[in-house]
Amino acid sequence: MGIPIEKLLWMYEMMVKIRHYEETMEEVYMEGKTPAFNIGAGTVPGEMHLSNGQEPAAVGICAHLTKEDTVASPHRPHHHAIAKGVDLNRMTAEMFGKETGLGKGKGGHMHLFDPNVKFACSGIVGAGIPQAVGAALAAKKRGTDAVAVAFIGEGAANSGAFHESLNLAALWNLPVIVVVEDNQYGISVPKDAATAVESNHLRAPAYGIVGERVEDNDPMEMYKVSERAVERARNGEGPTIIEIETYRFLGHFQGDPELYRGEDEVPTLREKDPIGRLKEYILLEGLADEAELTERENRVKTLVDEAYQFARESEYPKPEAALEDLFSS
């Protein structure tokens, strides 16, 4: 099963876009804050959880989704939102707390919602799984072929929401896919210290559904596994659990001292950067040349830069606007 060239190039372009977005946020988030403790509201208020290194989980499955498919995301949502096609300007403005944001600046980075592409971000561990099951139930009742995807961290697979939701999804044969991003840590707790099974895809047979695992943060393998899962869901063959072995290059949150990680852990992971590996494959296979890839990189980086500029230039909401929204809802 080969991957179409246009899909490979889309995945590469999207991964570069996500990475540039997150690397820019790394810098912008610290503006106006005391580095040691992230004290001060700064340009971007609230906590910040970035997804550098975890791009394959998002692009591998979103390459198969349409605007009519639902994605529910957790507290580390940017890669999912960008891959699903959330409005980048409004998404960035939301994180800045601006009036032009997706939620008029009221939700921040952990509560991103874009109904135009059916994207929702719960911000609470495991809370997106029931949302995705609900969306899948709605799609089935309406007789459409839409699917729903819930992204979670591997730590959320130990929550009640995971098991209750998958039991219902399997019982009702719903078109839902749960993507478990195994980035090795639940906050600061290693996976093997908190989870009884080696991989969460092994939990699937308990519900009579399909489970698959993607090793070594491989975007191409994630694409192939996701293609099978989405096809099963659209054909009425029920839910799938996909666990992908992925790596976050940064801490659980910005400012995390990361005392739980080994000294050489992150440098070693960065040597396996999935973006560089996919680029090498594309060049070696002659699917594009360096000039074409550079053009694509520059184009998406410009879009990201424009989104940050849009957010900076947008106005903060007026205090009375909150009351107007309250009484008009």
Automatic annotation (TrEMBL):
InterPro entries: DH_E1, PDH_E1_Alpha_Subunit, THDP-binding. It comes from the Bacteria. Residues 45-320 form the Dehydrogenase E1 component domain. GO terms for biological process: pyruvate decarboxylation to acetyl-CoA. Keywords: Oxidoreductase, Pyruvate, Thiamine pyrophosphate. One of its GO terms (molecular function) is pyruvate dehydrogenase (acetyl-transferring) activity. Its cofactor is thiamine diphosphate. This is Pyruvate dehydrogenase E1 component alpha subunit. It comes from Pseudogracilibacillus auburnensis. The lineage of its organism: Bacteria, Bacillati, Bacillota, Bacilli, Bacillales.
